[in-house]
Design goal:
It is a single chain. With 162 residues, the chain is of the alpha+beta class. It is built from seven helices and five strands. It has a five-stranded mixed sheet with strand order 1-2-3-5-4. The protein is globular, with a radius of gyration of 16 Å.
Length: 162
């Protein structure tokens, strides 16, 4: 059943991708290109997964914050995590856009550091500016999962237009 569910998810993602406009210049293409661009910084290939109608649901307003957030998250993986694997997942869940960056690195001891870099504060500010949240989770198995979630619609007018 899990294999069938995964196959259905992949088929749906492919259908959404084929139905997207912009000739490959949508959010999907931009995220994949960014992950590839940052491959030398991270030290390995980072697969990017999509769930839902990403290209049609992610507004320009969200995309303008999504891409720098992903850049910062993957840069942090490369600089600090000491990870050997990572993946990116972008999902549209209801009216929410959810970016997850998951790695198997060393994680944080206790809480994320508050001094030094601006990466996490910048990602949090980008989410909050859009009415969303940033959560950093440390699974018992190790590593770090960053969850950046914002409303896919940024105003009542946008929500009504969809």
């Amino acid at each position: 059943v899990a294999d069938i569910d995964e196959t259905i998810r992949q088929v749906r993602a492919t259908i959404f991708e084929l139905g997207g406009s912009g000739g490959g210049r949508g959010t999907r293409a931009h995220l994949v290109a960014l992950a590839e661009e940052l491959r030398p910084m991270v030290g390995f290939e980072v697969p990017v997964e999509f769930n839902g109608p990403v290209d049609s649901a992610v507004t320009d307003t969200v995309a303008a914050q999504l891409l720098p957030t992903l850049r910062e998250a993957l840069t942090n993986v490369g600089r600090h995590a000491e990870a050997t694997r990572a993946k990116v997942r972008l999902s549209i869940i209801g009216h929410q856009c959810r970016l997850e960056v998951i790695d198997n690195g060393r994680g944080f001891v206790g809480h994320p550091p508050t001094g030094g870099g601006l990466g996490l504060p910048n990602m949090r500010r980008r989410a909050e500016d859009l009415g969303g949240t940033l959560e950093v989770v440390h699974p018992e198995a190790g590593g770090t999962t960053l969850i950046w979630q914002v409303p896919a619609f940024q105003s009542r007018a946008e929500a009504l237009d969809e």
